[in-house]
Design brief:
mainly alpha, two-stranded antiparallel sheet, 74% helix, globular, NaCa_Exmemb, membrane, Alkaline_pH_Ca-Antiporter, transmembrane, Ionic transporter y4hA
């Protein structure tokens, strides 16, 4: 066992995240020259691939849906910490940072991640099969908390502009967290079978068939390295963001595009993990990652921001604009029609990817 752990620690998937974190320590909060930005971007890519590997090791040990939950929650917790850190730095851009980040995460996961997972699964088996009961309940929860947190503030009258009063923000935070915890209970305890991969005949697949699960020690080691890799991913994404912002400004794109690019970078580990699962005919695992990540992003971010607003100054703009509301509403309608049958082909995957493309285009050309 000691030799096995020693060989495990010698893998590139372990030392690349460590090097990335060391680089993060030396580059945090500094203006980076172009050469350093390129090195940081390479380390960022390596940390993403390492995070996917370790997430799969943990998932193989604990099984579904716990594996998907571990990756989604880990990414979201670190993402929330990054948002709060940026908001503490202040500035006018910080007022809408939480809204822009959460909305981007919802659109990327519920359209981009879900669409490419269905497309890969359908290309492999002609029809992608999943459990509509579990995925449908999760998607309904995402639609509910997204509406309460991002749409309702645009219509309340207690405060001017698209923002909540303190009491309204507290209600939205408690509701979001309560619904997320209820979902986790249903997913992991009461109705775990709703979130397990199924075959085209509807048979539940509860075990990995091709490999023995890793030992508990190796799984714990992977969990630790996973957290290190995710810290490196989010931190380096922030580190290269000034260069991204400069590039965005130089080609005349809106400042909001920076948030979208950062969200895409942060969600890379989940995206790669979801595509790999779909390619192995585990579409349900992919959808657990997609919808679960969207839910974690809202259900954990809004309560954290509500607490942070106790000591942060300035307004918190949560309400979406008209164009964003239309995209969110269309996503909910199309997503419902996709999920209800429990089967999807390349058309449904293509429609969601088209919505993702529309979101990216309108972010660049509002």
């Amino acid at each position: 066992m000691a030799a096995r752990v020693g060989s495990y620690l010698a893998r590139w998937t372990v030392f690349v995240p460590i090097i990335a974190v060391v680089a993060l320590v030396f580059t945090w909060g500094r203006d980076l020259p172009s050469v350093v930005v390129v090195v940081a971007a390479c380390l960022l890519g390596g940390a993403v691939l390492a995070a996917v590997h370790h997430a799969e090791v943990v998932a193989h040990r604990v099984g579904e849906p716990f594996g998907s939950l571990v990756l989604a929650v880990a990414v979201t917790i670190i993402e929330v910490a990054l948002i709060v850190t940026l908001m503490i730095s202040g500035g006018e851009k910080a007022q809408s940072l939480a809204r822009d980040t959460v909305f981007a995460a919802v659109m990327i996961t519920c359209n981009g991640l879900l669409g490419i997972s269905l497309l890969v699964g359908a290309l492999r088996r002609h029809v992608a099969v999943f459990n509509a009961e579990g995925t449908g309940g999760a998607f309904a929860t995402v639609a509910t908390i997204a509406t309460l947190s991002l749409v309702v503030p645009s219509f309340t009258t207690s405060r001017p502009g698209p923002q909540f009063s303190p009491a309204q923000l507290a209600f939205a935070a408690v509701s979001s967290l309560a619904l997320y915890l209820l979902f986790v209970t249903v997913q992991t305890r009461r109705h775990r079978d709703y979130f397990l991969p199924i075959t085209s005949s509807g048979k539940v697949i509860d075990v990995e068939e091709h490999l023995d699960p890793p030992s508990g020690r190796l799984a714990l080691a992977s969990l630790g390295v996973l957290m290190v890799a995710l810290i490196a991913v989010v931190g380096l994404a922030k580190g290269v963001s000034p260069s991204i912002e400069s590039g965005v400004e130089s080609i005349g794109l809106p400042p909001g595009v920076v948030g979208v690019v950062i969200a895409l970078l942060v969600l890379l580990p989940e995206t790669i993990a979801a595509v790999r699962a779909a390619a192995r005919d585990r579409v349900q695992t992919s959808l657990n990652l997609a919808v679960g990540s969207a839910m974690a992003s809202i259900g954990l971010t809004i309560p954290a921001i509500a607490i942070a607003m106790i000591w942060l100054d300035g307004p918190l703009l949560l309400g979406l604009g008209g164009t964003q509301m239309v995209l969110l509403a269309l996503t909910v309608v199309v997503g419902t029609l996709t999920i209800v049958p429990g089967r999807a082909n390349v058309l449904q995957g293509g429609v969601h990817l088209a919505l993702m493309a529309a979101f990216l285009f309108l972010a660049a050309s509002p």
